[in-house]
Design goal:
With 99 residues, this protein is α+β, with helices and mostly antiparallel strands. It is 27% helix and 33% strand.
Length: 99
């Protein structure tokens, strides 16, 4: 999600709203590399067909969050998407079965 920030009247700097490892929203000069869903506590790629379908149907957008990288998403308590990150999802699921 791009959020414009005015540095001065002649210069416009873009920042992005990302979720940090502590789960708190912060502003970044760099865009996120992964999208997620706050309600489902999951993250995935921007080209995920499941997320794109939900967005096209008018769902998901108000609960959309963004992460700078996968490690941050995991630390924030989000799980990988089973559709676009099947290998990471399988590892996540297997790790939960052990506990």
């Amino acid at each position: 999600m791009k959020v414009p920030r005015e540095a001065c009247p002649a210069v416009r700097i873009e920042t992005w709203a990302l979720i940090g490892a502590d789960g708190v929203l912060y502003r970044s000069d760099l865009p996120g590399t992964l999208g997620g869903n706050r309600r489902g506590k999951l993250y995935g790629r921007f080209d995920c067909r499941a997320a794109l379908s939900a967005i096209a149907n008018g769902r998901y957008v108000k609960h959309r969050v963004f992460f700078i990288d996968e490690a941050t998403a995991i630390l924030a308590g989000y799980r990988p998407c089973a559709v676009c990150l099947p290998d990471q999802y399988a590892q996540w699921k297997a790790s939960r079965a052990i506990k």
